[in-house]
Design goal:
GO terms for molecular function: symporter activity. This protein is an alpha+beta fold. 63% of the residues lie in helices and 14% in strands.
Length: 456
């Protein structure tokens, strides 16, 4: 029999004994075993080490898996070990939003290192500031007012008319609630393959309806404002059913993969909170016509105020979010709305829509109500995920106006050039007319000099 076979059998039986003999017999106990700390604050943790070998340990260090989330500076010299154990305290400092683990690393006299199986889970959340509560409640109030205005401005007769020829609005709703959710889901998986929280931020932004910004930009770019308002109204109403549908179907894939609980109750509450102001607007339209006229007049200003408030206030109060900005965040912020504009325009032209209608459809498809997505993320997700994921809609809100503003400048330049050409043509025509008029008013002698009579 081959002697190698005996060596293999010996190794097979001896390996478990060898590993058991050399396995780390010490353990670490953190008290508490989980801690939640606000950014830039410290928390004191108790550490108990037992089963250590006196004289064999050179150094003990407490380390953190992700030093951008939390910091620990604790090194214990081996000489402090007494009777094979050590007990004491150390401080952990919260650096930035996120989650990480702390563990103990022991360096032996021969420079061999061992790490503890026990870990301390650390969660870093945003500090509780008054300005954050003001921002959240103000957005909620502005969104409620906006939906009251939508209810008051909703033209039921016009809706019935559009049903007879719903091509344009149907394209807009399809782009808003089919193209954008699928696009946001795909981009999220592509750009953030290892971050389910960021995928949710992307997806929640994609399933949000178009806001009043689409109406404002459509009017500024000389699109069909009536179709824009109608599509916004339809998408707002459809959002009550389609947003939960997407969250509980395609969104559930992200929740399940990220080990996050689907917030059924909170999403339902959110939908009800949007239905109530819309119903209030319908009641105002029915019983208070004078108030309705006022609400319709302030619809665009309120929409513009909501846009400016969310973008400016969110940037000012959440400057820390820019620390999360990476090339993926920039691409996400540009990709979702810009591809939405392009796909919306292509769909509209495929179905032979006029340019003003196609422009309204493209703008309606690409613009998302980031205020709703921010509010939904913070309302449904636990911390710090609720804050971390808002970087995506904030990025989308910043990047969305760029191509629209560029188009506005192009249209203005083109308009100015056309106006200049028209002025030149008008000046030339005026000059020609003045020459003709001057010739008609010349005395007969001067006319004869300029145009002598023909000789017989």
């Amino acid at each position: 029999m081959c002697p190698m076979k005996y060596f293999l059998l010996l190794a097979l039986f001896a390996a478990p004994i060898f590993l058991f003999a050399h396995a780390a017999s010490w353990n670490a106990v953190f008290t508490p075993d989980h801690v939640t700390i606000e950014m830039h604050r410290e928390e004191e943790i108790k550490l108990d080490l037992t089963g250590l070998q006196d004289g064999e340990v050179a150094e003990i260090a407490v380390k953190v898996a992700a030093d951008h989330v939390a910091e620990v500076h604790k090194v214990i010299p081996g000489r402090e070990i007494n009777g094979g154990s050590w007990s004491g305290y150390f401080n952990v400092t919260a650096v930035f939003l996120g989650k990480t683990d702390l563990f103990v690393e022991i360096t032996m006299g021969n420079n061999q290192k061992e790490t503890s199986d026990e870990k301390l889970s650390v969660t870093v959340i945003r500090e509780d500031r008054v300005v954050d509560h003001v921002f959240t409640y103000t957005v909620a109030i502005l969104v409620s007012i906006l939906y009251i205005n939508f209810g008051a401005a909703l033209d039921l007769k016009l809706l019935k008319t559009i049903v007879l020829c719903p091509v344009g609005p149907a394209i807009g709703v399809f782009g808003q609630f089919v193209v954008m959710p699928l696009l946001s889901f795909g981009l999220g998986r592509l750009l953030f393959p290892d971050s389910h929280a960021m995928q949710l931020g992307m997806f929640f932004t994609g399933i949000s309806p178009a806001g009043g910004a689409s109406n404002v930009w459509t009017a500024v770019l000389n699109g069909n404002i009536n179709m824009s308002v109608l599509m916004t109204t339809i998408s707002t109403i459809a959002a009550f059913g389609l947003m939960p549908m997407w969250i509980f179907t395609l969104g559930k894939v992200i929740f399940d993969q990220g080990n996050l609980a689907v917030p059924y109750e909170r999403v339902g509450t959110f939908a009800i909170c949007l239905v109530i102001p819309l119903f209030v607007g319908l009641l105002i339209q029915r019983y208070l016509p004078r108030v309705t006229r006022i609400l319709v007049l302030v619809l665009k200003p309120v929409s513009a105020l909501l846009i400016l408030f969310i973008v400016i206030f969110a940037i000012v109060t959440n400057l820390y979010l820019f620390e999360l900005f990476s090339w993926q965040i920039f691409v996400a912020g540009m990709g979702l709305p810009w591809l939405g504009f392009l796909i919306g325009w292509i769909l509209a032209k495929v179905f032979k829509q006029a340019n003003p209608d196609a422009l309204a459809i493209a703008v309606e498809t690409g613009i998302q109500n980031t205020g709703i997505s921010i509010f939904l993320l913070r309302f449904t997700l636990p911390q710090p995920e609720g804050d971390l994921t808002t970087v995506v809609p904030v990025s989308v809100a910043i990047m969305t106006p760029i191509p629209l503003f560029a188009l506005f400048l192009i249209l203005k330049i083109k308009e100015r050039l056309n106006r200049g050409r028209r002025e030149l043509i008008e000046e030339k025509e005026t000059a020609d007319l003045s020459i003709e008029d001057s010739q008609e008013t010349l005395p007969q002698e001067e006319k004869n000099v300029k145009n002598p009579p023909e000789m017989p």
